[in-house]
Amino acid sequence: MSYEAAVHAQAIELDRLSLEMTAAAGSGHPTTAMSLGHIVTVLMFSSMRWSPDYPDYPTSDRLVLSEGHAVPIIYAAAAKLGVMYGKDPENRKRLSVEDLSTLRAWDSELDGHPNPMEGFPFFDAATGSLGQGLSVAAGIGLAARLDGMNRRAYCIIGDGEAREGQIAEALDFIIDHELTNVLPIFNCNGYGQADRVSETQSAETLKAKLDATGYETLVIDGHKPNEIKAAFDAFAERSTDPQAKPLAVVAKTVKGWGSATMQGGGWHGKPATGDALDRARAELEEQRAELTTSLASSDAFQIDPPEEPKAIDYSIGEVPSFNAFMESLDMGSLLATGKLATRKAYGLALRALGKTTQRAVVLDADVSNSTFAETFKADPANTPRFVECKIGAQNMVSVAAGMSAGHKIPFCSTFAKFFTRAYDQIEMAINSGANLKLVGSHAGITLASDGPSQMSLPDVSWFRSWSTMRDHRGNPGCYVLQPADAYAAYALTQVMAEYHGVCYMRTLRAETEFIYSDDHVFNLGGFEVLTEGRDLVICAAGYMVHEANKAIDLLDKAGVAATLVDLYSLPFDSDKLLDVINANNGYVISVEDNFGGGIGSALADAMTDSGDAFTLQQMHVKRIPKSAKPPDEMLQMCGLTAADILKAAMEMLQVA
Questions:
Q1: Fewer CB within 10 Å: C terminus or N terminus of the chain?
Q2: What percent of the chain has pLDDT over 70?
Q3: Helix extents (H) in 469-585
Q4: Cα gap 269→259, rounded to integer Å
Q5: For the whole prediction, is pTM greater than 0.85?
């Protein structure tokens, strides 16, 4: 049997399995899957270097299905190849054709969209929220490049999906970083969900856009095996050529290929059942009779194995203390000032971390001189691992998720406000089990003069929502960290690096006084009692710890002994903190420089769960702020000064 006939036969078989598994599930996207039958066959049975026995082998080529709803075609191919799957790496089993009938079942590893954490390690990231996969593939390719690996990343993107702005960000990023080992494959079947795609997503227009961006673009018939293979061979030849342009493939396909009655509009997300399924099967058999005379045998294809992994040291060494590292950089005079912005301490921590591990990579979105991530790249040994993403926070987060899949520890830095536009990407990274560290600078209202367009105010609430659930490993979905001084920021950066999971840390533009020293130990889920009283507790974090400390002095003068807690981590040890509050008559005030839903809500949840009696006053930003010059004016505008805290405490205690 010729290679071309073998591909046709196998693609028809995969299309049939896609029809049958979606019919069994009662939902899914068989027609999108069928448009990819030939492309997936050539990739998984021929062009990719990988092993079905070890689908997550560290050097194997990777396939990112950005068009995640087409996943039945991948499951079908994996079943024909007997790919190993399962959540426990030590107890995996081979996927069989019979297993495909469990698609989308609650106890099945075959989720409705790709997700490695549900037990399908062929994938590196959860996809299906459209527009993100190409960025993930870019991260995988960049991580491989840094480690000197000759692995390639293929990414399948829908033509309607190409409308997503993040696709443009990723395409630019690949050109900027000359990632010839990443191949965007646009599946141009002409249809979205509701109707045909726009002419601006046509194959011809996509080619023009790609050419203008700097790609060499190949337009192929996505159902002609020899054209598909030739395109993938061309990509393989240039994937290690530093002088070559990145390649992109635009594949013209038919949605519902092989079944005339399922083509065109009206079938998106709709499985064929009953007579419609029988007709579609019969039409596929007609295609089989026309294009080949028998089923493809395993001898028709050859899958090249991945290369042997190089010895790479992925360990993390001990980071020097803050004082010692500052002295090593001749920055001891800054210590003598008694204050330093937490954003600057973060940059120093990155630089120190970079000396201890090759896993640490730092991504920034054109603000590294404000986030102080530039401190990392100032060390020539770290410079190759600094990744400039320009103004594209969404792409940056998804690239970081891809680099996490490549065994890196990615730190993403930008203004905290700008992470809000990447909430979807962060959520998908959490779903993927990514080891992601997000650091937002210029957080909260103390940014002052730049005004609300630059302030992050709902961020604590959103990230804190992830601290209320458990990820696939049984850990909080995200830790939210708010260091109050440079020592805390420096130490917590190291803590984040050592933890496998997602963390979000807020840093400040303002210079803040030192509270701690090298002797203090910071932990995820921890908090620090800074002063001990008996009448009430004030819980604050970040900049507000300093303002609350001023309030402690005012309360002391008024004869009130208050306890101050630096609640630098969400979640926190609820039992331990409630013991502190109980020792203060059950009275507590939360103070935060963001909108509600953060520290105060976390305290309220803990109190409700305990069933004990407490009195809680939440102080947070309750209006849209405007520009003000010094931070003190902004605190006054929002009712969060030390005097405001004093007033709230006296009213709570009913002291005149």
A1: C
A2: 99
A3: 486-498, 543-557, 574-582
A4: 16
A5: yes
